[in-house]
Amino acid sequence: MIPKFSYFLSALVLGIFGCDESAFHEDAPDPFLSENDAATPPNVVQAVDQAPLGVSEIAWIKRSDNQGSAVFAGLGDLSGGEFASGVTGVSASGRVVVGWSVSEAGRQAVRWTPRDGLVSLGGGAGQATAISPNGRWIAGFVESPESITDIYGSEFATVGVVWCRDDAPEILGGYPSDGGIFPWEVLLIEPKVVLNDGSVYGTGIQYGAYGDAIPLYMDAEDEFEIVPGASEILAADAAGFYVGTRYAEPRSQAGFRSVALSSEADLGYPVDAPCVEPHECGSVGRGFSRDRAIVVGTSSVPPPCNGPDFESCPQEPLSDTAFIDSATEPMLRLADVEGGDEASGAFSVDAAGRVIVGFGTTSEGPRAVVWVDRIPRLLEDILAVAGVDSASGWILQDVIAISPDGRTLVGNGINPDGQVEGFRVVLRRPL
User: Fold this and answer.
1) pLDDT at position 159
2) CA distance 80 to 44
3) Residue 278 preceded by cis peptide, ω within 30
4) Dihedral through CA 413, CA 417, CA 420, CA 424, nearest 10?
5) How far apart are CA 306 and CA 178, in angstroms?
6) Positive or negative, the Cα torsion across 424, 427, 430, 431?
7) Do strands 319-326 and 329-333 pair parallel, antiparallel, or not at all (unpaired)?
8) Predicted TM-score (pTM) above 0.85
């Protein structure tokens, strides 16, 4: 049985139960749009969820590109400080993007929508790490208040939080029902997944566990669970299926390994790029298709070697490789783009399991890659074929997430001014 801790969520009473459900529905009618404005101009792509477009969303699409079969634009940054922003996730409709940006106050958690642009979520220095499919909940971490310490009296650098729309962030901590000197019996440090009801998967600390990080699940009914057999959960659905990684047994010559897992089984390593013992290999599941038949992620394995053992396959630097694991065949490497150092990673997959996004490596370095039916394509080539001019001068480095319908992609790159900036791509037609 899963160890369970049923406590009052002192910081989340307002967050979970006080969040106005209608306030964060991104597909609600746009309050800035009058009845006469509801019709979308013929040269403007309609949003993925078919909700009416706000006037600034129409302006964003026009600024981006409205002649080809896709639109592209950088997401900008907060005012003040150096120009920098990054993307970590997107809602199911593709209309809410989360991540970070830099302001005069330092690195901040942010939300981007076509209507509002890039806005700070508040709470001080931090970062948004996940968004619920319905777009209502955003999870992340912020700089820890000085009053929160571990059992040794040392302050936590960050604490996990959730935001509901424009509400203040609420700390993800469970308060012990019998009191005690520690403010929270269980404290989430870095949320990784947030679901439509506000429940969260993440990495946290249990009081009395001597600071060891543990994988935790916090549901919307005030209960925490330690996720058995896992070390990190990176994607999950409402029915309890998840993927991530766990630490394997230590090896005498290489220390700890990690191995990709789902809630149903260990996934291992790609059969065409095995982990030759005793290398310190690693693999992690990062996304899965709606029917759970496809899991994608990244493994760190030695370069291919024909020898049968460690002596004939000396320990060389490990290389990252994107993988796909399906219900009908073992885990396999995803082909990288031509050139470079054969380094790649898969971060997300569409609902059908056909379109996978991540990065690959060319002779010029890491580049955003989209695998369509397992065939790698550079995102910059896809945009060029689509007739998109607004990506000219950008170095598109990765695609972090894709919407379930495969039409919205978000990622990170270097803009024409040499600045780190998140971007968003909307496709008029699926790939």
Assistant:
1) 82
2) 32
3) yes
4) -50
5) 60
6) negative
7) antiparallel
8) no
